[in-house]
Description:
There is one protein chain. The protein is an alpha+beta fold. Helices cover 27% and strands 28% of the residues. A 4-stranded mixed beta sheet has the order 1-4-6-5. It has 2 domains: 2-156, 2-Layer Sandwich (Ribosomal Protein S5, domain 2); 159-274, GHMP kinase, C-terminal domain (Alpha-Beta Plaits, 2-Layer Sandwich), CATH 3.30.70. Keywords: ATP-binding, Isoprene biosynthesis, Kinase, Nucleotide-binding, Transferase.
Amino acid sequence: MIAFPNIKINLGLSITEKRPDGYHNLETVFYPVALEDALEIRTFPNADRKFTLHQHGMEIAGNPEDNLVVKAYLLMDKEFHLPPIEIHLYKHIPSGAGLGGGSSDAAFMLKLLNDHYQLGVSEEQLEVYAATLGADCAFFIKNRPIFAEGIGNIFSPVELSLNGYQIMIIKPNVFVSTREAFSNIHPHRPKYPVREAIQRPVQEWKDTLINDFEASVFPQHPVIGEIKEELYHQGAIYASMSGSGSSVFGLFTPGFVLPEIDWGTDVFCFKGTLNK
Length: 276
């Protein structure tokens, strides 16, 4: 059985306050985009171990036991005593990009297991399981635009459709650590709250829908800020870093012919049309 985990982008990201537990409260909108990995599972009845993970495509650092798809399987196995499985994960989504690729893989693994083994777990309970694997994992269970707050784990509906808009996502060969991203963050209530700004016309987002991490990340990695400026130069009506980086996306009007730009061999580039 196979599934195609997709990414999310952040539309606005405001860091509103630091919590007593050391984490930060934020507000953002998660929006799904059809840049996808491929995830396949097969029952492996005579295996001498619970799982075998085959990784393809982009290289993933770390041990297989630390991969979120494996953690998702082990979580469900603890609850439902699943048979041994063989997992094939083809990575097309770049890691360390602020696109939620690993979280999406984990959430889609939960859904795959639920469907393949007919476990009968509700969407709401799948979200509970997903939340134990990562703050944004639960988003990918329903996989539709939502307003997120708390540490990115409290969701509420948002009326938003960008269906037909063109998108370009650029990720330079730059890694932004969480510590770097938060190093110059000063929590505050934004002039235009995300929930309010997102209801304005997309043409007004440039000045109202802000990712607070840009102020911290761009001075440390100027190339990321330069990509954002180039996307505007090429005709984007809105451009932003996603999450804490290092990817940047540009939104273009429906029917816009996306530009051909030589970003270099070590830069990831995705072009597509939004369909949500």
